[in-house]
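Re: your question about DNA-directed RNA polymerase

S., sorry for the slow reply, the queue was backed up all week. Below is exactly what I fed in.
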Amino acid sequence: HIRDPKARMQAVWNYCKSKMTCEPDEPKDENDGGDQDEPKKGHGGCGAQQPLIRKEGLKLFVQYKRGKDEDEDVKSLQPDKRLFPPHEVYTALKKISDSDLHLLGLSVDYARPEWMILTVLPVPPPPVRPSIAVDGGTMRSEDDLTYKLGDIIKASANV
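Result:
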């Protein structure tokens, strides 16, 4: 194991970036390896193809690479590229186990990946907000955050 979490995360990234299939466990053979004291531990792979995740603007897309042996009918069943909505990203990040987080070099208590997606926007009450000049500087208001939140909501609606 690599002690430095950043170096560990980089090592995991370098190892995994070329893996495009969730490799399934080897089938157990009754005759093969019967004299071993310790059975080989599986990693629980499902055999599914792993997509490439690409960012375009503020949106994430998943892209599947097609195999050389796939024919036209199979190509039409699975899309080349599809939108990866935030709720699916959040669900995928939430499914990462504590042991996997430790292997990735992330802290279970302080750096859960799903915490990087804002699901709740904290807003301080008006008395603690700083006052700002509104509409040309003649009026002062502590409600600047309300204006900014309105801008965020309008931008989200446009996206």
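The mean pLDDT is 77. The chain has two domains: 1-19+50-117, 121-159.

Happy to talk it through on Thursday.
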